Amino acid sequence: MDTQLTSPAVMPSHGWWRYLNPGPFNLKEHTFVVIMASTASNVATGMEVIAALDLFYNLRLNAAVAIFQIFATQMLGYGIAGILRTFLVYPTYAFYPSYISVVNLLQSLHWGGALNAKKRKFFWIVFAAIFFWEWIPQYPFPWLTAISIICLADNGRHDFVRNLFGAGSSNEGIGLGSVALSWTLVFDVLLSGTLRAYTAQGTPLVWPLQTQINSFIGMWLGYIVLTTTYYSNIFNGRNLPFMSTALFGADGSTYNQTAVITPDYHLNKTALTTVGLPRYTTTYAVSQLCYNLSLGAAVTSLFLWHWPELKAAFGGMQFLKGGQEINDPHYREMKKYPAALDGGSQVILFILSFAVFGASGNAIEFPFWWGNPENVSVDHCKATSD
Fold first, then answer.
1. Containing domain of residue 304, as a range?
2. What does the alpha-carbon distance between residue 104 and residue 28 come to, in Å, rounded to a whole number?
3. Contact 194, 178 (CB under 8 A)
4. pLDDT, tens digit, for every residue of 281-293?
5. What span, in angstroms and rounded, lies between the C-alpha atoms of 162 and 171?
6. Where does the sequence pass through the membrane (predicted)?
7. How many domains does the structure of the chain reveal?
């Protein structure tokens, strides 16, 4: 049973307040709050492009253009998800482990019973412990964030030890054998930190065992591959830092990308011949290589192992048709609510979002083949050939 947690203690429910707080604070309302808060807490990828334009090229988009561009890119994603919801959301096999812990927490906070009471007590104990502990490694004693006994014993005498075992600060090393006493660092490393090319899979608390094993195998391969390629002087990268995402020139200094870009943001091929091609560090080049290979592997795996599902979904454009029989208890319960939009409307919104994105994109003066805003407008495949 839903215990109907009340909210008048936080927000009044009398007078005009009743329009904001018309009744008890229940599980459904709490879920909506979590969805909105979690959505707002993540930065849209389109915002990274706009920030990179300002940071690296001193290009500040008009506020309206930037807003419409971010809105359009977000709607493209939501549009695709809506169009494909008949086999990405509704069926039982559409299982997303990262949300199981959130659902379990919300149910424990609202449902009665002895087991849920124990879960709530455990949650508040852990919450309080983490809240008070995280102040210690984050501010007065940052040394506790990551401890490497081997680095302490070496005391900075050997670069190899720092590169392999260091991880206390950004791009210090790949952190083999380091002990982290801050959950912030643990989560960052596993989500998108030191070995971001291999472990960007989300919180480790809810991973299935198979995913954890695959991730840890990838981490160990990362230790071996990154160290071996760097000290084997792959891409002639020994004169560059061990870890960095910056661009470097032939002499190892920071690459002067303004020298090879014209005032209208086109590539100056004559200047490029003089300045030379930009260079990645070996570890960053390998991580980008593995990242791109993983995308191809994901698509290949999808066709090899899930061809029947793809054929059933896309054959005859079934994913646009409603009224399909889906054997899922949650889907049957949700059928009592009207659908937000049908397939045709989703397609129309997708096309409109794409059109808005294309129109707002004209405000950016870069040529249409331009790629990553964090890097110079040069073919990325050539960036490591020097």
1. 147-382
2. 14
3. no
4. 999 999 889 889 9
5. 10
6. 32-57, 64-88, 94-115, 122-139, 213-233, 339-360
7. 1
